[in-house]
Design brief:
mainly alpha; Growth Hormone, Chain: A; membrane; MFS
């Protein structure tokens, strides 16, 4: 699949342009609030369903994953809707719907009602997150695209690191209802910020000109944009490997008696990614995607290898840092590629296409890897995932690396 580069982007431009505008900062905070709502609940929802409604492990698992089901369905429409109806209106509408959904966790009095709330919450989250990312991408200077995307990705990284920890603290020291109220407040803050966000005049003029163009109808291209297929397939493989980390790292640590290391895994992940964001985005803007992608692939491969062989708590912490340099680098780099590969009026479709592929990898991972773990154990599984990263590397080298945008 050929890659088309947006004509309005010069990735090697040295023109100084302001990145941290009020719109960028506000969008970053909205993105953080949405990810916190996700991570506050995803790690505790299965247990809540089992305790509150006497659900089986399978039913409790579905109560947790129903959010992902709703989010995946939304991916089929999120990109097209964002490009068709506008980023800010869609953002406000679906952050509002998500806030309403969080209010219904407390009165949900049965498992079917809880699952229904999770489906609506997941759908609204996916639509809102696509809209806010497309909005922020529209205000990032072209010459600092990768740097800005990397900083934007820090919101999800911080939520990954601290959201589950906060959730566990709240349910142990307070109650699930307290956690639901905290989630509602986080979503409401995002709604207030969405109402307040303002785009720079230059962006508004550009979008006004784009608004005069014919609006496209929903199509397969709006779900899977042709220009994003190759980087999407690459991230599907990377997402599959990442699923093994986020799904089984705690179970692996318990089996190896490495729970202290596992408790620090995502903290190390966040710190490593935070530090490298000051360098890798600028490298990608100046020298293309290849150096950053290869750094991410090598780091992620090493992370999986260290986990497979881990015998000490510090091994798991090191693996967390390497994973931050790995997946934490690859995701924003791939998002930059996706945005740079589509026309300016199709940024929503580019972002949602990439996330659809990544979500498929992360969604299929627990199912496929659960079978593998049962048959071979955790060490073999992480070794196999290291091989998956090698296969993804070969695919990237063969299909993407030689294009001028990546060099």
């Amino acid at each position: 699949m050929a890659v088309t580069v947006r004509a309005d982007i010069n990735p090697h431009s040295a023109e100084p342009t302001k990145l941290f505008t009020p719109a960028f900062i506000t969008g970053w905070l909205i993105n953080l609030s949405q990810y916190l709502c996700f991570y506050f609940l995803i790690t505790v929802m299965a247990l809540y369903a089992m305790r509150e409604f006497g659900a089986s492990e399978a039913a409790g698992g579905f109560a947790a994953s129903a959010f992902v089901v709703g989010a995946t369905v939304a991916r089929l429409f999120a990109g097209w809707a964002t490009d068709r109806f506008g980023k800010k209106p869609l953002l406000i509408g679906f952050v509002a719907l998500g806030t309403m959904a969080t209010l219904f966790y407390i009165p949900a009095s049965s498992l079917p009602m809880l699952i229904a709330v999770r489906l609506v919450h997941g759908f609204s989250y996916s639509m809102a997150s696509t809209a806010v990312m497309a909005l922020v991408q529209s205000v990032i200077p072209n010459s600092r695209r990768a740097e800005g995307t990397g900083y934007l990705a820090l919101g999800s990284t911080l939520a990954t690191a601290f959201g589950p920890a906060v959730a566990l603290f709240v349910i142990e020291d307070f109650s699930y209802n307290t956690l639901f109220w905290i989630t509602t407040i986080s979503s409401a803050i995002g709604l207030i910020l969405a109402l307040l966000i303002r785009k720079p005049e230059s962006v508004l003029r550009r979008q006004l000109a784009a608004a005069s163009q014919p609006k496209s109808a929903w199509s397969i291209k709006s779900v899977v944009h042709p220009n994003v297929v190759n980087i999407g397939v690459f991230m599907l493989g990377v997402g599959l490997a990442y699923a093994g980390v986020i799904t089984y790292i705690n179970a692996f640590a318990e089996e190896r008696n490495l729970t202290e290391g596992a408790s620090m895994f995502f903290i190390a992940y966040a710190v490593a990614m935070l530090v490298m964001r000051f360098f890798l985005g600028r490298i990608q803007d100046k020298h293309g995607a290849n150096p950053v992608i290869y750094i991410g692939l090598v780091s992620f491969f090493l992370s999986l290898g260290v986990i497979a062989l881990a015998t000490e708590n510090w091994h798991v912490v090191v693996a967390g840092a390497l994973s931050g340099l790995g997946y934490g680098t690859l995701m924003p780099a791939a998002q930059t590629i996706a945005v740079s590969s589509v026309p300016a009026n199709q940024i929503g479709a580019g972002i949602s296409s990439l996330f659809l592929f990544t979500d498929i990898g992360i969604g299929l991972g627990p199912i496929l890897l659960g079978i593998l773990v049962s048959a071979t154990g955790y060490s073999v599984m992480y070794g196999v995932l290291a091989v998956v990263v090698i296969i993804a590397s070969v695919f990237y080298w063969a299909t993407l690396s030689k294009h001028s945008m990546y060099q």
